[in-house]
Each structure stands twice: as C-alpha cells, then as structure tokens.
C-alpha cells in the first residue's frame, strides 16, 4: 500500500505482502539525506491531508491548517485514519523523529480533550497514539497532560492516579 512505502515499519501491517523493515535498512535510511528529506515531505503531505501544518522542521511543532474544519470532519468520520496515524507515529520513532512524535500526539490530545474537535479520534489518541512515543519521560508528560484535560478525571485509566497526582 501507499502508506507502507511512505512509512515503513519493523512490524507487519495490514498488507500481508509487505515485508517489515530490518534494523539495517532503518540505519541506511537514517544515514541518507535524500531518503530523510523524502520522509519529511511525505510526513508534511499526510499532515496536510489531516488538516495540520508542520510549522517548524527542527522541532516538529504543528498547527491547524487553514482547511482544518473539513479535514477534521474526515478524520472524525473515517476511523481507518487512526490506524494510519498510528503507523506514521511509529515510523517517526523508527526514523529518529521522536520529537515529532511528541508534537503529533500532543496535537491530537489537545484537539480531542481540550478543544473537543475530534471526538472520534479520542480513544485512538489515548489507547494507541500515546504509547507510540519512545521516550518514557515524554510519554509520562503526555499521559499527565491527557489526565489533566480528561473529563471526568476519575474515569482516566491510562496511568496510575496516585502517580499522576504527584507528577511534576
């Protein structure tokens, strides 16, 4: 599939014919400026499809695109997009873009929990997107952020309440 070629992983996806990446292939990709430039172009293309702009290539900072309303409507209507976003997030981690992962997950947590624009993405953001983040520390920060904005807080099951309350 189109997405497999743009965002390959070390695991099997929905396309049974697609071969998972090897660690050697990932290392070769990461060393190639041309491959990594293409990867970022593909990432920006997919973000655009979802109504998101990459504001800063150094940090991975994101914002809503001008057409975000119609694109978010698409995201809310078609849940298969959530699988694609999970794949993109995992691939960002494989390719060494862990900061990009954090920004994309936080973007979706903000849109689902704070701005409440993507109600049908909320479960995927909490159940899957969050746990693609490779950095344990950043993942903890994101879980705490999600807990702070989740309603009702007493129903939050993605982290231990006692630790979330003490988290600094």
From TrEMBL:
Residues 3-165 form the Opioid growth factor receptor (OGFr) conserved domain. One of its GO terms (molecular function) is opioid growth factor receptor activity. GO terms for cellular component: membrane. It comes from the Eukaryota. Belongs to the opioid growth factor receptor family. This is OGFR factor. It comes from Rhodinocichla rosea. The gene is Ogfr.
